[in-house]
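#data-curation
PF: Archiving a pair of folding outputs for the training set. Convention for this channel: one message per protein, sequence first, structure tokens after, nothing in between. First:
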Amino acid sequence: MTRFAFVLALAATPLLAHHSVQAEYDTNHMLTVQGIVTQMQWMNPHAHFWVETKNDDGSVRTWELELPSPNSLVQSNIRKDFVKPGDRITVELWPARNGSSLAHTLSVTRPDGRVLQFPRSWPAER
């Protein structure tokens, strides 16, 4: 019975990571930020990347930007290197409702000017 409980707990773990976009992010408040990519994390259930921005007062804020799952990104022909540390980019996002620096990524304008759009809710409707 113990082995069964362990397997059941492992199977349920990904379910705990899923959340409602509307519950976690302020979908009525879109922000546009410009900054430098500092890190990329390509892991389930969502890929993330971090962008360092400068506030009007000169202070620095690092945004953790959530993306769809790596599998969804690959299916959309978006690869892990779509942005790289050091890239200066512009991001449209929905900020977290709790005031943290976590955000839902809506679009990314890359250094070459190419704009990548991401679904407003995940998984993407096909």
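PF: Second:
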Amino acid sequence: MSEAAAEHDLSGQWSGFYNYPIDRPPTPFEVELRDNGGLLSGVVSEPGDTRASRGMTLHAVLEGQREGATVRFAKHYDYLPRAHYVVDYHGQIAPGGDEIEGEWSIRGAWSGTFLMIRGSRQEDAVTRKVSEKV
């Protein structure tokens, strides 16, 4: 794998948050992301942020693509009150490949910003190596 391709391989564990366009605190989330040659898939976990979902952990799947330093993906919740809409994300990968910043939108509803940060790939490699030694 070339250094440029490795830099933009987005596979791994990511932490982030998204902001609403109204006066609400940011919502944190965790993503286990897989990047197969630019095709993205993953699983998202985040705390419920409405009166009905407070205290719950919401889950969603995402699918999309990476082209150069640009990513686009769609998030689909498995929580029934949110299952009817798709959240579209569009962002830019920062140099080094460990941050993605951009905007999310729900067509016809609203939009906001997001930021995702990945732990060091070297730390991930050490974790994998330790896990394999068992």
